[in-house]
Write a structure and sequence with these properties.
By secondary structure, this protein is α+β, with helices and mostly antiparallel strands. It contains 16 helices and 16 strands. A hairpin with a 2-residue loop joins strand 6 and strand 7. Helix 14 runs antiparallel to helix 15. About 35% of the residues are buried.
Length: about 475
């Protein structure tokens, strides 16, 4: 059977976190009433004022280009990309066709224990389109409604080279890209709200061939899971087409999340179809090297740098360092806890197991956690000092997670302080030994499990508050 190689390139659109649109003063808040954040400029009405470029949007785009190792253009210029669609009020989209802000960058991520590098073909700034709401399925919808609030919102498009080979690599690429953008603080990258959208260009070619096959563009993937499932399905569909002796049709296809299949939408346009030309209302101007240097100096520590620091300075394993550095909020939380309890591995274990476990079960993000970094640090300090046991610490943590109360408040209210008084423990140990003479004989005859049974009984009587280390020392002394 003929073997094929999968070729995938991703086009990722990211809405920037600016207060106003790219060329006018209209607001960009998500969820506003339909068509309430519009004006003559973003609606393309005749007689409207001239467009005025949003400097903040340009700064964010340059910052992203630098973070993705791109070569920055020497001048800012915008072009008109001409096509007709219901969500495009002007009849053209203002974009950067001839002079994108960044070229020839790359992004790296780890897959299968190795580092994968995907080239960034270009990164450019453009205005977003309106949003169509379909009545039912996009293919069969009898009519659609359009909300122009989104039209003109600053949109950054990042086009990868066709270096991705599997659906899993595409998912990891997107997750890493999202992490970098959120570290920069220039977008919230909420796929469910449309502030991060992904189109995938997919083709197959015979193994060993250098020539690309005919590709399809896959749209409407609004989650990492959708991207993974959509690409996997389309790859298998194209494989079946090629094995049957037919040719893949170059077209735009729609991913249907409900049915789990891709459907044909329309023919694929090529660059010449857009008849791009420089926008006559937005003159080009040079990019200041001083300004670029200022933007570069404002870039924070990015995921890869934090990953390396967590391993080299804190001695964390690769898996823990990767998880903790995967989101800026999580990495910041880890660093914050260390300022209150400087034990990197213990802090890492508690965040990746206890905290993340509770957050995942509750469907929450780290920013929504009621457990403040200083309170987790105090809890771990109490455990280290022997004031509470590890078991009690987990009980206290659960209460902290549910209520947001400080650990010392919970420990005091519930009387959970660890028993380290030898006189108090002596009486409890003597009572347990008196009630279990057979366990004493079993231990002395070499049955080590008997010790565990006796410890368990004492812990039961003390409601888990006995100091484990002191208890074991005293019990062994008694048994001797």
């Amino acid at each position: 059977m003929q073997e094929f190689e999968t070729i995938i390139g991703l086009e990722v659109h990211i809405e920037l976190l600016t207060n106003t649109k790219l060329f006018c003063g209209c607001g960009t808040a998500f969820g506003a009433g339909p068509n309430t954040q519009v004006c003559p400029v973003c609606m393309g009405m005749p007689g409207g004022t001239l467009p005025l470029l949003n400097k903040r949007a340009l700064e964010f785009t340059i910052k992203a280009a630098l973070a993705l190792n791109c070569r920055i253009t020497s001048q800012v210029a915008f072009d008109r990309k001409n096509y007709f669609y219901a969500d495009l009020p002007k009849g053209f989209q203002v974009s950067q066709y001839f002079h994108p802000m960044g070229r020839d960058g790359f992004l790296e991520f780890r897959v299968g224990g190795e580092t994968k590098r995907v080239g960034i073909h270009q990164l450019h700034l453009e205005e977003d389109t309106g949003k169509l709401t379909h009545i039912g399925d996009i293919i069969s919808s009898p009519y659609s409604r359009v909300d122009f609030n989104r039209a003109g919102v600053p949109l950054m498009e990042i086009v990868s080279e066709p270096d991705i080979r599997t659906a899993e690599e595409a998912r990891l690429y997107l997750q890493k890209l999202r992490a970098i953008i959120r570290y920069l603080g220039i977008s919230d990258c909420k796929m469910e709200e449309g502030s991060m959208r992904c189109d995938a260009n997919i083709s197959l070619r015979p193994v060993g061939s250098e020539k690309f096959g005919d590709k399809t563009e896959l749209k409407n993937m609004n989650s990492f899971r959708s991207v993974f499932r959509g690409i996997e399905y389309e790859v298998e569909r194209q494989r079946a087409v090629l094995l049957s002796g037919d040719n893949v049709i170059s077209e735009t296809r729609h991913w249907d999340e409900n049915t789990g299949v891709t459907k044909s939408m329309r023919g694929k346009l090529v660059s010449a179809d857009y008849r791009c030309f420089p926008d006559p209302k937005i003159p080009p101007y040079p990019v200041s090297g001083v300004w670029i240097s200022e933007i570069k100096s404002s870039i924070p520590e990015l995921p890869d740098a934090r990953y390396q620091r967590f391993m080299e300075e804190h001695g964390l394993q690769s898996s823990a360092a990767e998880l903790l550095s995967s989101a800026k909020e999580l990495a910041d939380y880890y660093d914050a806890v260390l300022t209150f309890h400087n034990d990197p591995k213990t802090v890492s274990n508690w965040i990746t197991s206890e905290l993340m476990g509770h957050l995942n079960a509750a469907g929450l993000e780290i920013a929504q956690s009621k457990v403040q970094p200083q309170d987790l640090g105090k809890l771990l300090q109490s455990m280290e000092k022997g004031e509470i046991s590890g078991k009690i610490a987990k009980t206290v943590f659960e209460e902290m997670f549910n209520t947001g109360l400080a650990p010392d408040v919970i420990i005091k209210e519930k009387g959970l302080t660890q028993i380290s008084d030898t006189d108090a423990l002596t009486g409890i140990i003597d009572a347990v030994l008196a009630a279990n003479p057979q366990s004493i004989e079993d231990f002395r005859s070499g049955k080590k499990k008997a010790l565990g049974f006796l410890v368990g009984q004492i812990m039961k009587d003390t409601k888990g508050q006995a100091n484990p280390q002191l208890l074991n020392e005293m019990l062994l002394e008694k048994l001797k």
